[in-house]
């Protein structure tokens, strides 16, 4: 599984808008802190997988990187996606390494 660090994601976001962010946490978690993008809770992914693009890089985000890894495994093994990146350390890594002002939980 391909991963991207918080610092690498920050650099890519500042240089390109051709990236999709998919957050697989629950709505309550998304309200606390998020990077924007599409909120598709992990449990809803089978029904909403069509919202995940295939034509540009997609970074999958959760709290620490475990649920996003599950989402990527599902999307690659079941649906043949090949353009997915796991945010290493999740939103927590972003908050501690890139944006210390971001709320943490």
TrEMBL record:
<dbReference type="InterPro" id="IPR050229">
    <property type="entry name" value="GlpE_sulfurtransferase"/>
</dbReference>
<feature type="domain" description="Rhodanese">
    <location>
        <begin position="15"/>
        <end position="103"/>
    </location>
</feature>
<protein>
    <submittedName>
        <fullName>Rhodanese</fullName>
    </submittedName>
</protein>
<dbReference type="InterPro" id="IPR036873">
    <property type="entry name" value="Rhodanese-like_dom_sf"/>
</dbReference>
<dbReference type="Pfam" id="PF00581">
    <property type="entry name" value="Rhodanese"/>
</dbReference>
<dbReference type="InterPro" id="IPR001763">
    <property type="entry name" value="Rhodanese-like_dom"/>
</dbReference>
């Amino acid at each position: 599984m391909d991963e991207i660090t918080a610092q690498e994601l920050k650099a890519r976001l500042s240089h390109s808008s051709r990236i999709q962010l998919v957050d697989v946490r629950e709505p309550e978690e998304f309200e606390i802190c998020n990077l924007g993008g599409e909120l598709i809770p992990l449990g809803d992914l089978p029904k909403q997988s069509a919202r995940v693009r295939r034509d540009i890089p997609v970074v999958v985000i959760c709290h620490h990187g475990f649920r996003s890894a599950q989402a990527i495994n599902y999307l690659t093994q079941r649906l043949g996606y090949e353009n997915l990146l796991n945010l290493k350390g999740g939103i927590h890594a972003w908050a501690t390494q890139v944006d210390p002002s971001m709320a943490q939980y």
